[in-house]
Amino acid sequence: MNFDDKEISFASWSRRRFMQMSAATAVAANLGSLAHAEASGSATMIDVPFQKKDPRVVLIGTGGRGTNLLQNLLAADAQMVGLCDLVKEKAEHAASLVVAAGQKKPELYTDGPHDFEKMLSRQDVDLVVIATPWVWHTEMAIFGMKHGKDVALEVPGVTTIEDCWKIVKTSEETRKHCMMLENCCYGYNETLILRMVHAGKFGELLYGEGAYLHDLREELFSTAGEGLWRRAEHLKRDGNIYPTHGLGPVANYMGIQRGDRFGYIVSMSTPQRGLDAYRKEHLKADDPRMAEKYVTGDMNTSMIKTVNGLTITVKHAVANPHPYDRINLIAGTKGVFQDYPPRIYLDGQNSDESWEPIDKWKEYQHPLWKTEGEIAQKLGGHGGMDYIMLYRLLQCVREGLPPDIDVYDTAAWSSVAPLSVASVSHGSAPVEFPDFTRGKWKQRKVSAIATQV
Ligand SMILES: NC(=O)c1ccc[n+]([C@@H]2O[C@H](COP(=O)([O-])OP(=O)(O)OC[C@H]3O[C@@H](n4cnc5c(N)ncnc54)[C@H](O)[C@@H]3O)[C@@H](O)[C@H]2O)c1
Q1: pLDDT digits (tens, 9 = 90+) for 103-132
Q2: Is the link from the previous residue into 321 a cis peptide, with omega within 30 of 0?
Q3: Strand runs labelled E in 214-362
Q4: What is the bridge-based pairing of β-strands 127-130 and 343-346?
Q5: How far is the CA of 63 from the centre of ligand 1 (A)?
Q6: How far is the CA of 87 from the centre of ligand 1 (A)?
Q7: I need a surface site. Which of 282, 310, 354, 452 has the fewest CB within 10 A?
């Protein structure tokens, strides 16, 4: 190719790029109407405490995750008064766990996909935990809030920008909370590093990275549990469809929605290859799953620029061989922490520019881990973080505190999935984040999880 050819090909590339950018502007404008949507005429839910009580809890979804949450809830003495699942045997098994914990058998709701409505219409229920497939999250959360229940919603929260606004609006109108159950925010390392960030150990923060790198191929093709619904998500969208495990802790370190907020996102994906390759090796040629067309790229890399200028990289890869990793990196003017394995490098601490283990920073261990760490680790759910999260949720309700992760966090963290999809589908163009707090992020305090108890 001679120089002129290069010029021509660059010109046609830029024309193509320009067309993509124009399309992206259209998308951004489209999202823009949602970006500036008035959530409701009602007051904010920022810093609004839970109504103080020992909550009566119900659970929708007694599958893999729901059962695990239930075991942790029971260990934290949650009063379980109702369980709902499409599959009666699963609900019965969950009920047996409640009885084994010394409580009365909770009422079961197993009469079809809308039986949760009967359970959530009860007057003697305060808090609903939702652990169902993603397509049900918004409907169940909204129904719960509209029927006077606080909501604890499994990750990845809700899946469209419209639904982000719907949960914000409903929370404000009903004065009920909608907390995302982002367990990774409650890990030992994450809570310790959060306290070090607040003690200024990393200086002024500059950038962070989070990821969900988890080989889910076997799970996605299993004929039980998540295999029944999660692979379908890979038929719908190309982007980071499960961003919050990596993102939540980094957002906490940076005080997102508390003096800063996500500004815009740029996202790109590799082609999809892993699920095709896996099924070729593991399924028979006439298996109906061989006809599925997966569109979610194997590795999605998104970059978020915050309004204050910080950057966050978020990755998602579940369809290739890879050791489990959430990266969990935070860096500032005085040092850097990165997980998997946990290691730290602080200015002036180490002469040979090598990482150090985090053990020597035990003094920053979170008070929740000091008091509850032993039981959390014995229970085991994701290294104990599941128990710490649920213990803390119950503590917030029992003591009448605001939730650590509120509806604005739930909406902002959830929004990364649809906004990354919008960016990918328009040539990785930048797409703006809505401000779900409508300006209130500016004067807001840091999350209580940073400083409590
Ligand atoms: N935070 C974490 O670490 C973590 C881990 C795993 C899963 N999850 C999340 O938990 C949720 C559930 O995942 P899972 O692994 O338990 O899946 P699962 O398939 O094992 O369980 C889902 C359950 O929901 C039930 N269900 C489906 N539709 C229903 C309806 N309309 N009414 C009542 N029950 C219904 C199913 O019968 C099933 O028992 C998902 O949002 C997933 O992303 C989070």
Answers
A1: 999 999 999 999 999 999 999 999 999 999
A2: no
A3: 262-269, 300-306, 311-317, 329-332, 335-338, 343-346
A4: unpaired
A5: 6
A6: 12
A7: 354
Of 85, 142, 214, 230, which is best to mutate to test ligand 1, by the most ligand atoms within 8 angstroms of its C-beta?
85
Q: Does ligand 1 lie within 6 Å of residue 183's CB atom?
A: yes
- Distance between CA atoms of residues 130 and 153, nearest Å: 5
Tell me the C-alpha to C-alpha distance, in Å, between residue 21 and each of 24, 76, 192, 429.
Answer: 5, 51, 42, 6
**Over 60: is that where the pLDDT of 22 sits?**
no
Q: Is residue 357 part of a domain?
A: yes
**How close is the Cα of 136 to the center of ligand 1, in Å?**
9
For 225, the domain range is: 185-365+407-450
Residue whose CB lies within 8 A of the most ligand 1 atoms, among 154, 245, 318, for a mutation test = 154
Query: How far is it, in rounded angstroms, from Cα 146 to Cα 389?
Result: 25
pLDDT class of 283 with cuts at 50, 70, 90: very high
- Provide the CATH number for the domain around residue 237: 3.30.360.10
Identify the pLDDT of residue 27.
55
368 — phi, psi (to 5°)? Answer: -65, -35
pLDDT digits (tens, 9 = 90+) for 371-389: 999 999 999 889 999 999 9
